[in-house]
Amino acid sequence: MISAVVCTRNRPALMAECLRAFRANQDPSFEILVVDQSTDRETERLVREAAEVDRRIRCLLTDTVGLSRARNTGIRQSSGEIVAFTDDDCIPDSKWAAGIASEFEERPEIMAVYGRSLPWTKPWPGERPVAVKSDPRPRVFRGRQNPWTLGHGCNMAFRREVFDKIGLFDEALGPGGRLRNCDDADFTYRLLKAGLTALYSPKPLVYHQQFRHGEDLWNLEKDYGIGAGAFYSKHLRLRDLYILKLIAERWWKAGMLHIIYGMLTARRSHLRLGWYRIAYSALGIWHARKVALGEDGGYMM
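User: That's the sequence. What structure does it adopt?
Assistant: Structure tokens below.
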């Protein structure tokens, strides 16, 4: 059975659309766990109303804060052999669960499946879509490599034994956490570092709502950068020198190339994006050095 975990906080309108899409997914062999960290009762009300007509849905209320904590709550409370994740601002395709199940069934060596994510709504002119991966070709991943190549946290699934092997999500990372973001990238990297095999597959499909615009989008880019820096810092402190390659890739390919392109074309958005990706990841490295690591190698809260 698949346990689908969706974490949410104070976004009832988005959560309602996500639940409508889940209910169109007719597979009876999976459960839908909504981990609700909201500060009001609106999300709880709509989830419980949906649960009255669809017994696959469960509402898990928690007074914790942070996406990683919510994900870990969902893992602990789930019962499926496969634990899958999407976000409250995503619309899962009606064959999402079936796509995940088929990949695990057909490939017993695969421990993780990452799926496609396409824009549900168009970004504004001049803005790039967030958390999108449209590659139509499947690809198997083994060993250390850039975790962002596999996919995004809005569409990923794991065999339960993965959590026994590498632990849960680092609760200092991720939105709402002390270090802002990149809990999914950290988890993916740890999975690959442990020698487990992952698959990117276009079969499991979600549509990602592009609801952030203007300065909200730039603030998200700041959080991505700080989280990436914290991820780098953590593994450097664990004496993993491969991280130096990932830092160089980010600062050159994702940073300087945007700056150069922006200078040549007079496009200020590229200048700003390149600067953000270098400066805020460096800031994340600097801030994270002050956060102690526990015996398991994760950040201490």
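The mean pLDDT is 96.
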